[in-house]
Amino acid sequence: MYARPILRxxxxxxxxxxxxxxxxxxxxPFPIQLNEVAPDTGDALYEAWIIYWIxxxxxxxxxxxxxxxxxxxxxxxxxxxxxxxxxxxxGLPLYWLGWSPIGVHNALILLxxxxxxWAVALLGLQLTQSSVAxxxxxxxxxxxxxxxxxxxxxxxxxxxxxxxxxxLLLRLWRNPPLRRWQxxxxxxxxxxxxxxxxxxxxxxxxxxxxxxVLLAGYQVITRRWGLSRRTTLALASSFGLAAxxxxxxxxxxxxxxxxxxxxxxxxxxxxxxxxLENYLVPHxxxxxxxxxxxxxxxxxxxxxxxxxxxxxxxxxxxxxxGLVATRRSERQEQGYFVVLxxxxxxxxxxxxxxxxxxxxxxxxxxxx
Length: 368
Hints:
Number of helices: 14
Mean pLDDT: 86
Radius of gyration: 22 Å
Order of helices and strands: HHHHHHHHHHHHHHEE
Oligomer: single chain
Low-confidence stretches: 1-7
Helix content: 55-70%
Shape: globular
Number of strands: 2
Largest sheet: 2 strands, antiparallel
């Protein structure tokens, strides 16, 4: 007799469970205090308020979607606040269960860590064929210093939608869909992911566009595109669907900003853009014996979460190992991520590239 084969749990399922469990353990005791504490008393409460009023607008007839009791006499208050629509939808079950706004917000923060680990683990699995390597990369990404520095900013923690989209896109080039139902699934799935990112945060939406443009250019150069006409049409349709889903929010938002003359001066970009030395500034003191505190300048425009960008020796070590240890047969996409990292680094320096706080910089024509 033959032994019955053991049922194998798909990698994406056990990685999802492992990601959620790791988030609960590493953020303990936060997971059991969701209705009791707030990451801070500023932006966290502000975002919890926005999410509550979006959920109220979606589920009751008493309040219009974009209305909230603030900024009188302006009525469409939500449109001049961060677009947390995707997070509001994810938190709807807890809203229906009667959770407090800050409890819903905190639960979404916890979920963002689990989904971030999972998304990068899937991407790592796609690139290396190793679920363990993917999980290690996911942990490094989710608990990176820059994300921990923005623990109270749920919008900035939502970048996992872009990671999931990239993982699926790279899979698309490796295994193009051959059947009609697969192409229809592609249109729906990719479109929903792109729309989810755009409606979760403006900044991450812009980062997603940068990543997609660079990926398209990279595939044209390295593969001469590499997709059939039908698959290309399906892919274009998916992003067309994403645009349609976003228009209901994007158009009234742009009209509102235009009517209120909402704009950010270029000096603000310089104030919050990174200086080169900020990439040597950790958010917390190092536990590995090295001290980078001499690079930390306390001023109105430095020293905050936006200017503590040191990724850590362990992260840099793993990144370097990945560059040199990847097998030649698996290096097809490696160049893309190097280009993406360099582009992100360059654009993070803002309209004026500066070494430090007190040093005059050079204008960055590409950013401007």
